[in-house]
From TrEMBL:
CDD domains cross-referenced by the UniProt entry: UDM1_RNF168_RNF169-like
Biological process according to GO: regulation of DNA-templated transcription
Keyword Zinc in record: no
InterPro entries per record: Ig-like_fold, Reg_prop, Sig_transdc_resp-reg_C-effctor, Tscrpt_reg_LuxR_C, WD40/YVTN_repeat-like_dom_sf, WH-like_DNA-bd_sf
Transmembrane parts of this sequence: 734-754
MF GO annotations: DNA binding
Keywords noted in UniProt: Coiled coil, Membrane, Transmembrane, Transmembrane helix
Coiled coil stretches, renumbered: 755-802
Protein name in the entry: Two-component regulator propeller domain-containing protein
The HTH luxR-type domain, residue ranges: 879-936
Source species: Xanthocytophaga agilis
Record bears the keyword Mitochondrion: no
């Protein structure tokens, strides 16, 4: 199928409008600020180590290393500015600064360490020289200041004497050339310098770059322009380009490929020219660079251009066929659709419809009158351009717009397969039918009756059914009547999943496909249901699709939920498109295919150009597998190991207490954003999902051997690293043997000890039984005595209660006798002289002799205390101010006697009893809410 696809492109004419669109676009620029690489603004030199493919930058803070994911800064011993950096074929990174030059090489831990070479120089003036240029040659490494050149070879330094103050030396076409101020161009060979004939005029100019040209010519760039040197004469490179470079001060240059050069200026960024000197592109701060002052240029192994500037680092993806047109001033707005029609490029945006002629390298987009506002859809149908607009639908003729429908919101319009003379359009409210008028121009014919819903996507399947995606309301399958005036039938698919705003409708390989938030579904016409599209999901792997963009029956682009774009051919796995700075507009993402060779991507601030040949290169390209950069114990960072390549990782062993590890990794391929999947054998169950994370932490690994598997989305090969977590010293092979012997000895000792314990146990049991029998006998005696004591105590209490009751009876008897005495006295008084005094006296005497005295109270108190556990003694101890009368009242209250009974006992009135109670309460400091009777009945010492 792939061969058929490319065969189709062969028959396309060689001049493509897609190529013309590319000329108005610029390569993607990736900017790295000083906050990103954690060093200073200025970057004086750039180089790449061939084996590791790591990038190195000569920065004012030190040497910067970049592996595609991680930045690291290495400073010189005296923290000088690094003015130059070059990677040698020996794997060393040579650098130079003020009074210093040497090389960096990895140590046994994988970190770069610096080896200074200045000790090999005996010239004291070297301390004031800055090494601005380093050039590897066949004779050795040249370290160059503006006054001296030092040749390093076989660990020896030779101080060369140039013919004067010099500019940079360059190696071109096997020759080493350099400009000498006030003299001209010289060639370095066999440790000597020879003058280049006819170059004396260059002594008045500053030679800032020397590059190879066509047919063994040499391109020489100075502060006044560029010259071509053919071995005899010097000719101006290009008048227009020279004027630009003269005005903006040429500073650096690099050959990108056989047909293009890049020249960096001090004042106005970078220009890219062809071999004739014509400016192809101009890149500066206005269109993507961080700064206009270019201090260094370097083409990496992938053919992309690195730029060191007075402020930051930029990577220009020259070798990527992807190009972008960015609307930096916000004139165009967000692009929703694109169309190429009659050699003009049309952009439908939220600001209106814009048009530009494809006649120059610079685009000049102008607004088409009457189209201000939201443009949704651009379609070229039967050589007519239709524009679906917020205000209706327009027919576009050149730079003029003619409204052919006032139905608002022309979202999508398609030609019907069953009715090729008609168009079907989805709008904000209804479905519209268009046909051609007498002038063969499309115009609105009618709307489909019986249908009213917003439709932003529609498809017609091979059975003639119309599929419509109603915004956030689900899907409908419609059968139109023969005259398309109405619907013959309609089927609704309105499950919660299909009613999501993220649902997208398309056709792939003649199957109706729907993407949702969770999965990809395909329609099964036999069962009238949507089912998982297993083949597509298998091609996607663990990724989830957001939207498909079919470009032919067997190939599609797919936008994934993470914002990346992939390409899928039938029965092939997905191939990711290397796009980093994608600015899709959510829910309205769009990719438009034009002239069968070029695909345009609608962005928030412009559009991108994706040529078809990119797909070819992606299918055939090979990118090296990811590199494991380091493995570091979490709590022991100094014991970590750093790696620089993926060749033959050694096996590592960590102590048992170093079982929490961080493994870092990278991919030194700088044009693509790498995502990683990993699996730790003997720990994880399987591969993880692809993620942009560049390190993985494993905690509390058990002792054992592990294999860390790593792969990226850019390479099919995986990288492996073996390591081991050692067992603790108390659980190794020797210790386990000792433990076994100790266990056997312990068992024997335990058996002997068991026998001894059995004997001792038997003896203890015998003694215990004897002691138990004696104890039981003693306890029986104690129990008998205790029972006797309890019985006696109960008898005492019972007798005390009886005595107390009898005493109370006696007291009441006394009270009765007192009453009788009083009655007798009253009778005597009434009788007066008539009474027999002697009889009355005898009666009174008899009564008085039978009335109890205080002795009765003492008996009562003694018995009362026996019954109530010395209640009165405890009460008078706590309240010493109580009188005997108070104590009697307290005793009566404890016996729960009523006021009437207490009054009789005291021979007083009820009121007097209440007065006594009040005085008793005051003496005991009781609150008024406390019931005095209840208090006495519950009273214990300290209550």
């Amino acid at each position: 199928m792939r061969r058929k696809l490319w065969l189709l492109f062969i028959i396309i004419p060689s001049v493509s409008y897609g190529q013309k669109i590319e000329t108005i676009c610029k390569p993607e620029i990736l900017n790295f600020t000083k906050q990103t690489y954690n060093a200073y603004h200025q970057n004086w030199g750039i180089t790449q180590e061939s084996q590791t493919r790591f990038m190195y930058f000569a920065n004012s803070k030190g040497l910067i290393e970049y592996d595609g994911n991680h930045w690291e800064v290495y400073e010189l011993p005296n923290k000088q500015k690094v003015r130059s950096a070059v990677a040698g074929i020996d794997g060393r990174i040579y650098t130079g600064g003020l009074g210093e030059f040497g090389y960096w090489q990895s140590d046994k831990t994988g970190k770069l360490t610096y080896h200074s070479l200045k000790a090999l120089i005996n010239d004291p003036s070297f301390a004031g020289e800055e090494i601005w240029n380093i050039l590897p040659t066949s004779e050795g490494i040249l370290f160059q200041s503006f006054a001296f050149i030092y040749l390093y070879q076989n660990n020896k330094i030779t101080n060369l004497s140039p013919p004067g103050n010099i500019m940079f030396a360059y190696q071109v076409n096997g020759r080493v050339l350099l400009g000498v101020i006030d003299k001209g161009l010289y060639e370095f060979k066999h440790k000597s310098f020879s003058f280049i004939d006819n170059s004396s005029f260059l002594g008045k100019e500053s030679v800032n770059t020397i590059l190879p040209g066509r047919d063994q010519t040499i391109v020489i760039g100075t502060n006044r322009g560029i010259y071509l040197y053919d071995g005899n004469d010097f000719q101006p490179f290009n008048t227009t380009t020279n004027a630009f470079l003269l005005q903006n001060q040429l500073n650096r240059g690099v050959m990108l490929n056989d047909t293009t050069y890049a020249f960096g200026t001090i004042l106005n960024g970078i220009v890219i020219t062809n071999t004739q000197g014509e400016i192809i592109q101009h890149l500066n701060q206005k269109n993507g660079l961080q700064n206009n002052t270019i201090l260094s240029l370097y083409k990496d192994a992938d053919g992309n251009l690195w730029t060191g500037m007075d402020k930051g680092i930029s990577l220009i993806l020259i070798n990527s066929p992807l190009r972008y047109y960015q609307d930096y001033d916000g004139h165009l707005g967000t692009v929703y659709d694109i169309a190429l029609f009659e050699k003009k490029l049309y952009l439908g945006t939220n600001h209106g419809l814009f048009v530009s002629y494809l006649q120059s390298r610079e685009a000049d987009f102008q607004l088409v009158p009457k189209t201000q506002g939201q443009v949704w859809d651009l379609e070229v149908i039967d050589n007519q351009l239709l524009c679906g607009h917020n205000n209706g639908t327009f027919l576009i003729e050149g730079t003029q717009a003619k409204q052919i429908s006032s139905v608002t919101g022309g979202w999508i319009i398609r030609k019907l397969k069953k009715h090729p003379d008609l168009l079907l359009q989805g709008t904000y409210t209804q479905l519209c039918i268009y046909k051609k008028n007498a002038s063969f121009q499309w115009e609105l014919a009618h709307t489909v009756s019986g249908f009213s819903a917003p439709v932003n996507q529609l498809e017609e399947d091979d059975f003639g059914y119309i599929w419509v995606n109603k915004v956030s309301k689900g899907l409908n399958r419609i059968k139109l009547s023969a005259d398309t005036q109405k619907m013959d039938s309609i089927w609704s698919y309105e499950t919660p999943e299909l009613k999501s705003a993220a649902v997208n409708l398309c056709q792939i390989n003649k199957r109706v496909i729907v993407t949702t938030n969770q999965q990809v579904l395909q329609f099964d016409p036999d069962h009238n249901v949507f089912e998982p599209a297993t083949n597509l999901q298998k091609q996607l792997g663990p990724d989830k699709a957001r939207k498909f963009f079919p470009i032919n029956p067997s190939a599609s682009f797919v936008l994934k939920t993470d914002g990346t774009l992939g390409f899928i051919e039938k029965d092939n796995s997905i191939k990711e498109i290397p796009m980093k700075k994608f600015q899709w507009f959510d829910d309205y993402e769009n990719l438009v295919s034009i002239d069968n060779r070029t695909h345009l991507i609608c962005l928030e601030n412009g559009f991108g150009v994706l040529p078809e040949n990119l797909i070819t290169s992606l299918l055939s390209s090979t990118i090296q597998p990811p590199v494991i950069r380091s493995i570091v114990p979490l709590d022991f960072p100094t014991l970590g190991q750093t790696f620089r390549t993926d060749d033959n990782y050694p096996a590592f062993a960590f102590n048992y207490n170093q079982n929490s590890l961080i493994i870092s990794f990278s991919t030194p391929h700088y044009g693509n954003e790498a995502k990683y999947s990993f699996w730790l054998e003997n720990s994880s169950k399987g591969w993880s999902n692809f993620q942009t994370m560049d390190q993985k932490e494993f905690n509390n690994l058990a002792p054992g051997k592990y294999i860390f598997h790593l792969r990226s989305n850019l390479s099919k090969k995986e990288t492996q690293l073996e390591f081991e977590i050692l067992s603790p010293w108390y659980w190794n092979q020797w210790s386990i043997s000792i433990y076994v012997l100790m266990l056997i000895g312990a068992c024997i000792f335990s058996y002997w000890l068991h026998l001894q314990r059995v004997k001792a146990h038997q003896e203890r049991v015998r003694r215990k039984l004897e002691k138990k029998l004696r104890k039981q006998e003693e306890e029986s005696q104690k129990e008998i005595i205790q029972l006797r004591n309890q019985q006696l105590e109960q008898d005492v209490i019972r007798k005390s209660e009886e005595l107390a009751n009898s005493t109370m009876t006696l007291i009441k008897k006394n009270e009765l006798l007192l009453q009788i005495k009083q009655e007798v006295l009253d009778i005597k008084t009434e009788l007066g002289s008539k009474s027999n005094s002697s009889s009355f006296k005898e009666i009174i005497h008899l009564l008085e002799s039978n009335i109890s005295t205080d002795h009765d109270w003492q008996i009562f108190e003694s018995n009362f205390n026996r019954v109530h556990e010395e209640f009165l003694q405890k009460l008078i101890h706590e309240y010493p101010t109580l009188t005997p009368s108070d104590l009697r009242l307290a005793a009566y209250l404890r016996m729960n006697l009523s006021t009437k009974e207490i009054a009789q006992l005291f021979n007083i009135t009820y009121r007097s009893v209440e007065l006594k109670r009040y005085r008793l309460r005051k003496k005991m400091n009781l609150d008024t809410d406390v019931n005095l009777g209840e208090f006495m009945m519950k009273y214990t010492n300290g209550n």
